[in-house]
Design brief:
- The chain is mainly α and 187 residues long.
- The protein contains seven helices and three strands; from the N terminus they run E-H-H-E-E-H-H-H-H-H.
- The chain has a three-stranded mixed sheet with strand order 1-2-3.
- A hairpin with a 2-residue loop joins strand 2 (49-55) and strand 3.
- Helix 2 packs across helix 4 and helix 3 runs antiparallel to helix 5 (121-130).
- The chain starts with a strand and ends with a helix.
Length: 187
């Protein structure tokens, strides 16, 4: 499997390095566990992955061919958040500083990836559940609608946090960037 890392991912890693000495390794381990879930599910289903692309918004696995079924797509997409949730649940009783960083990063990965947004695990799961029972265009429309609504909610929520509490604008920037990536650019 070929792995490529974008410059924006490297910039994000640099920012994590500046945020705290344990945030970077905890985030990398959380991401590793999440992607291992996808890879183990793909291996169990006999699906070979050709490439992994890592960018600012996460990792994207590309299968070597077409997935055998919507069921396989659903299982592979669900495995990453499942592994993240299992690790987060395992870490709940642990109070060491690294365990807390890792638990928070792992649970954040799981919950964020479960949102029904295009190219997220939740979006892939929604599409895999709808496509067998509706026309493909209808499933795509529902996924587009859920993506718009989730990103709008994230942006409005983060704007309220920013205005009310003066919190970091990171979520607002992330949701606006995702919106631009998914709906304003081709490709």
């Amino acid at each position: 499997m070929r792995i490529s890392i974008s410059p924006t991912a490297l910039l994000f890693l640099a920012v994590l390095t500046l945020k705290g000495h344990l945030l970077l390794p905890a985030s990398l381990l959380a991401a590793f566990v999440h992607e291992c879930g996808h890879l183990l599910a793909a291996t169990a289903l006999g699906v070979r992955m050709r490439r992994m692309e890592i960018d600012l918004f996460g990792a994207k696995l590309t299968p070597a061919g077409l997935l055998p079924s919507y069921r396989a797509e659903l299982l592979i997409a669900a495995a990453g958040p499942l592994f993240s949730l299992l690790l987060g649940a395992f870490l709940l009783p642990h109070q060491g500083i690294f365990a807390v960083y890792l638990r928070d990063a792992t649970l954040s990965f799981a919950l964020f990836n479960l949102l029904p947004i295009r190219d997220f695990d939740g979006g892939r799961m929604l599409h895999a559940c709808l496509a067998p029972y509706t026309r493909l265009q209808t499933a795509d429309r529902w996924l587009t609608l859920s993506s718009y609504l989730c990103l709008l909610f994230l942006f409005l929520f983060s704007s309220c946090l920013l205005l009310r509490y003066g919190q970091s604008p990171a979520l607002a920037v992330l949701s606006a960037s995702l919106f631009a990536k998914l709906f304003l650019t081709k490709g």
